[in-house]
Amino acid sequence: MRSLERDAASLFCMGFPGSAPSSELRELVARGVRTVILFSRNVGGGPAAVAELTRSLKALTPEPLGVFVDQEGGKVQRLREGFTRIPPMRRLGERADPELAFRTGLVIGRELRAVGIDATFAPVLDVDTNPNNPVIGERSLSPDPGRVAELGVALLRGLSAAGAGACAKHFPGHGDTELDSHLALPRLPHSLERIEAVELVPFRAAIAAGVPAIMTAHVVFAALDPSLPATLSANALALLRDRLGFDGLVVSDDTEMHALVDHFGLEEAVVRGFAAGLDLFLVCHTASRVERGIEALVRAVRDGVVPAQRIEEARGRLNRFLSRFAAPADYTPDLACLQSSEHVALSRAIDPAIENEIPQS
Fold first, then answer.
1. pLDDT at 2
2. Residue range 4-345, CATH number
């Protein structure tokens, strides 16, 4: 039975400890949570264990349940043991080959779907314009916004061809910061003209190509909003919705990052972000913070701080995403493609020095 609390709970994507659903996760799925994110802490037992984990997660509810992971390549690749190692995106950008980028997305997507994972928080569309950036760097395809756009679109098309959901990040762009938003709140002074010419180029291209989801950056862009990071800024999200024409799922970066909790607190961040136009909140570590976020959202709707219509909009976008990508609990794993000769060859075409094991035939 639908209720405001269940609807609010469905707009939180949560992480959990261990290699099996925790009691807190089970309770929150029963309360209405419909998406989870996996980290290295969840997937250390190899592909068969990952497939069993995704089956057990999806069996927690008769409704569609989406499983996300950060599987970018390079250092941000949660699935490692038994999966094809993908080089950093900088290596792919140096090849400047859209077909190679498409095939990379296809390989990542196939290996995710093989173990029941529905979507990845990728591609990274940040433009690598600052060599002192502590958090993006080689995760970016290039310092050239046109190349990031071309190869980023090819990556997401490869993911889509494999049936996996893509979530481009970090809008409007995290590539020029000198602070890591996991630890602090970065600020950028760029003019709107500069943002249009650099940061937004890949996102425009991805939206034109049909990217189904976009993740926001916990970065203050002074030209858009001098006081709020893009995740919480109505101006920044209006730019995404109205000027760029995106009507897909808008996902926050982790709401537990210090850029948000140190400056706004979880509850304020959730209410501000939801009022601004976010559809799905990432809470990657702490179940009690998911509970607090749900309660804050329910209070905000009941008190008229945000209109109930926003719940319907957000749920509609999430349901469209899940209906397209969420595998059922009784899906059949297909582990044969993992670290196949074809996939390893693709990895080595990007970077011949990459270390991969080809399974014995």
1. 75
2. 3.20.20.300
